[in-house]
Design goal:
Layout lengths: L4 H32 L11 E13 L2 E12 L4 E2 L2 H6 L6 H9 L4 H7 L6 H21 L7 E12 L2 E10 L4 E9 L4 H14 L10 E4 L3 H10 L4 E4 L1 H9 L7 H13 L2 H17 L3 H9 L1 H4 L12 H4 L3 H14 L11 H14 L11 H13 L9 H4 L18
Helix pairs in contact: 3-5, 4-5, 5-15, 6-7, 8-9, 9-10, 10-11, 14-15
């Protein structure tokens, strides 16, 4: 152990493997002795007898190793399998290390090679299916009413030309983030978005009566409509990064640097007044260069300035003026699922991989930037919620049933000529 680092490490690992093997042999010897009695002094009352030994395998330290296992027979019967050897020879010993490697992006064939052929590709696949179904249940079954949700981010990710998954991430009043749920569909349409939002509401993501819910989204009309239908009082902020990117494609290349500066000014503005002023400068600049783009920008003014109008500290702008947070989640999800080349919609493959990748991305979550100022945002949303118009009460005189008249009905007289 006095050699260099590499030599000492190899010696140490070899000693650990030998210790594990010695422990296994000792366990099997103790089990044989409990069944048959001490060696050379067999228990005459026991129905079990030693029957020599044979070669076997054990899955130890992430690999497969050859061992020599003792054999035991039952009087008048067949061989008895030792519980200790059954546990050591089970490929389940590699389960956690294999599924962790696949979750980190290693291919299933790569996991087979990394374990020196200890398990085959089909075994790795079965292990991953089991683990990913467990993670799908974990994501879908965990309660969502245990947090005070302040903000909801909704965005879609395309797996192929015909598979789109809409994902929702929540931010609590404490600044912690959590992947809430997802919904698979053929596009980011109203049906897919509506199903996701309805399930979120059923699981506990509710708009509080005393406080509005903040929703961050891109320019998707389906998401905007779904949120309005389910939470009509929500504050919907459209992503400024998406709006910036769309406008850059509609003006001349030589004007794009000025456009970048105007959007930077808008993103850094604090409060209603500064936001309105920065937006007017942006709208005037775009109007002088592309009338159609300026008209489209004017139509989106309410959703682009929704967060500024809450009059909260600008330290929160980075988090709540774009959908970068959920975009980063989806980017990390792609890293975990980048080896998948074909998606099978006829099984639960999409749901399993989505849940596993999203939980993997969630493991790296930290509190949002500027979380110290979230109480100010909560108060602003409470003010917005208090300012919401209450639904008009129906006039009782118009809705009350007409009084019944159970008295005698007047008789009709027939006119005579």
């Amino acid at each position: 152990m006095q050699g260099d680092g590499k030599e000492a490490s190899e010696i140490f690992n070899a000693m650990m493997r030998q210790a594990v093997r010695a422990g296994l042999y000792e366990m099997m010897a103790e089990e044989v002795e409990s069944l048959c009695g001490p060696r050379y002094r067999p228990d005459p009352d026991s129905p079990f007898r030693r029957a020599g030994s044979e070669k076997g395998v054990a899955y130890l330290d992430g690999g497969r190793e050859a061992v020599v296992r003792p054999r035991v027979r039952r009087d008048g019967g067949g061989e008895v399998e030792l519980d200790s050897y059954r546990a050591a020879s089970s490929q389940r010993n590699l389960f956690e290390s294999i599924v962790a490697a696949v979750a980190e992006g290693l291919t299933q064939r790569g996991a087979e090679r990394a374990r020196g052929g200890a398990v085959g590709k089909s075994t790795v696949s079965r292990m991953w299916v089991e683990k990913s179904r467990e993670q799908l249940g974990l994501l879908r079954d965990r309660p969502l009413d245990d947090a005070d949700w302040l903000c909801l981010l909704v965005d879609g990710v395309w797996l192929s030309a015909e598979i789109c998954v809409v994902v929702a991430v929540g931010i609590g009043t404490d600044g912690n983030k959590r992947v809430l749920d997802f919904e698979e569909g053929v596009s980011e349409n109203a049906t897919t978005v509506g199903a996701l939002l309805a399930r979120l509401k059923a699981r506990g993501v509710e708009e509080k009566p005393e406080r509005a819910l903040l929703v961050l989204r891109d320019g998707s009309a389906a998401i905007a409509s779904g949120v309005t239908k389910l939470w009509p009082g929500a504050v919907q902020q459209e992503c400024l990064v998406h709006a910036h990117s769309n406008l850059r494609d509609k003006i001349r290349r030589r004007d794009r640097a000025d456009l970048d500066n105007l959007f930077k000014s808008l993103r850094q503005s604090q409060g209603r007044e500064a936001g309105e002023e920065a937006f007017e400068d942006l709208a005037e600049f775009v109007a002088e260069r592309n009338a159609a783009a300026a008209l489209a920008l004017a139509r989106r003014k309410e959703s682009l300035l929704a967060f500024h109008r809450l009059d909260v500290p600008s330290t929160l702008n980075t988090t709540f003026l774009s959908t970068n947070l959920i975009e980063n989640v989806l980017r990390n999800w792609r890293e975990a699922t980048g080896n998948v080349k074909r998606w099978n919609c006829q099984s639960d493959m999409v749901a399993r991989w989505m849940a596993s990748g999203l939980l993997w991305a969630e493991a790296g979550f930290r509190k949002v930037r500027g979380h110290e100022d979230l109480p100010a945002l909560a108060k602003a949303l409470a003010r917005h919620g208090a300012a919401r118009p209450t639904p008009p009460q129906a006039d009782a005189s118009l809705t009350a049933p007409a009084p019944r008249n159970d008295g005698p009905k007047p008789t009709l007289k027939t006119a005579t000529r």
